[in-house]
Amino acid sequence: MTKGSRAMDRGNGRSMKSTPDEPVDIESSTVFGAIEEAGDDQAADGVPPARQGSARYVLGVDGLTLVTLDPRRSRRDPFLSARREARGQEKRLGELLIELGFLKPEDLARILDMQINLGPERPRQRFGAIARELGLVTAWQVDLALARQFHLPALAPSSPIHAPELLAAYQPNHSVVEVLRGVRERICQTWLDVKRPRAAGGSGPSAGGNAIAIVSAQRGEGRSFITANLAITFAQCGRRTLLVDADLRHPRQHELFRVDGRVGLSTLLAGRSGADSVTHIVAMRDLYVMRAGPIPPNSQDLLARPEFGRLLAIAEEQFDVVLVDTPAWSDGPDAETVCRRTRAAALVVRADQTAASAAQDFVATLRAAQCQMLGLVFNR
Predict the structure, then answer these.
(1) How far lies 216's CA from each of 45, 177, 247, 353, in Å?
(2) Rounded to the nearest 10 degrees, what angle do helices 334-342 and 306-318 cross at?
(3) Angle, CA 249 vertex, CA 17 and CA 370 arms, to 5°
(4) CB 126 within 8 A of CB 119
(5) Strands across the sheet containing 344-350
(6) Short-list 261, 260, 232, CA closest to 321
(7) From its phi and psi, is residue 56 left (phi > 0), alpha (psi between -120 and 50) or beta?
(8) How many H helices and E strands in the chain?
């Protein structure tokens, strides 16, 4: 549990501290008992597009192609083998700063000269620190170059490719992102990296899988924001990730990633689209997004179709992580329907907004639906 984590208030109807619409800070609380107790193909500068393979296989439902994947980048490949071909891995920091346009070639000699000729009274300084001291680069420019050097997909703050709310892409060292990395690791430990069949005669769900629903009891609790940034953190650690926007009532992922929302999950389940339902986020090498598509008049009916279950089953075979953004429980039974398919969920609650009684009732409903609660993210 992260430092300062809090359990949900047990008081009937009591709510938790309010904040502006976009989260400025979050805390996570593991649910290994906490809930029980509390009741585009354009690449960013310097980011390489995915390698194109001649031999490819497809991910589809009932003959509909969703996305083509390169078998040479199978999720079973060793992590390091995929990193050896990473662009920029062997480049020095100065080369990357020049490549990104943050440093001029003539500045390189000036920095190196100062680094070599520092007096004995001063300890040897790193290249980035000297460049900042000379006023040649800013802190975020050095951080971005370091991210490229260590193959951490990240974008410059000035990049217009995605919405600025994607902190994990634009500010990977942000405190919110650090908390989400902790959430990511707990999800890995309790679900993604666990494969246990249901106990004989047991009534609980089988443990382990690749699909997780991100849920909330009410709207405005930051669920879509957290889902998007959590998906980026999974992709940044080398896990091929599919983000499915199953909020067919108030979708947001197409706005956050600034992709075409005219087709997506709704049109796919209605048999009106195929491969164009999924977008590869080129700047995030291992991230794919399935948009929600147009808002249908029968969202719960579409999600209850067998095709949605088959879609998730196929996605779990081809991706390391499948994160599903859901509508708020207060909007209808859609989230419960999704959680029956994923069999696992993480709950987002917001301070002074989430009614404790509503959250407790929601958790009880999901448990009755054989869904394992993995944890909660406390958004304050």
Answers:
(1) 36, 20, 11, 11
(2) 40
(3) 75
(4) no
(5) 26-30, 372-379, 344-350, 211-216, 321-325, 241-245, 287-290, 278-281
(6) 232
(7) beta
(8) 15, 10
Choose among 325, 326, 349: nearest CA to 27: 349
- Identity at 282, one-letter amino acid code: V
243 forms beta bridges with 289, 323
Q: Which of 155-169, 267-281, 318-332 has the highest mean pLDDT?
A: 318-332
pLDDT tens digits along 223-258: 999 999 999 999 999 999 999 999 999 999 999 999
pLDDT in tens, 200-232: 555 555 568 999 999 999 999 999 999 999 999
Contact 338, 324 (CB under 8 A): yes
Reported pTM? 0.72
Mean pLDDT of 74-85: 45
Structure tokens at 302: 């579409």
Exposure pattern of 207-246 as b/e (b: 16+ CB <10 Å)?
bbbbbbbbbbbbbebbbbbbbbbbbbbbbbbbbbbbbbbb
Locus of tokens 């597009």:
49
Residue 183's Cβ-side half-sphere holds a number of Cα atoms within 13 Å equal to 32
Contact in structure between 229 and 179 (CB atoms under 8 Å) = no
| Spatial separation of the C-alpha atoms in residues 272 and 80, rounded to whole Å | 39
pLDDT top residue among 57 and 182:
182
Are residues 212 and 353 in contact, defined by beta-carbon separation less than 8 angstroms? no
* Band of pLDDT at residue 375, cut at 50, 70 and 90: confident
Q: Which has the closest alpha carbon to 146: 89, 103, 106, 230?
A: 89
Q: If you average pLDDT over residues 103-125, what whole number do you get?
A: 79
CB 243 within 8 A of CB 287: yes
pLDDT over 50 (residue 98): yes
Q: Where are the beta strands (DSSP E) in the chain?
A: 26-30, 57-61, 64-69, 211-216, 241-245, 278-281, 287-290, 321-325, 344-350, 372-379
Q: Which amino acid is at 89?
A: Q
**What is the C-alpha end-to-end distance of the chain, expressed in Å?**
16
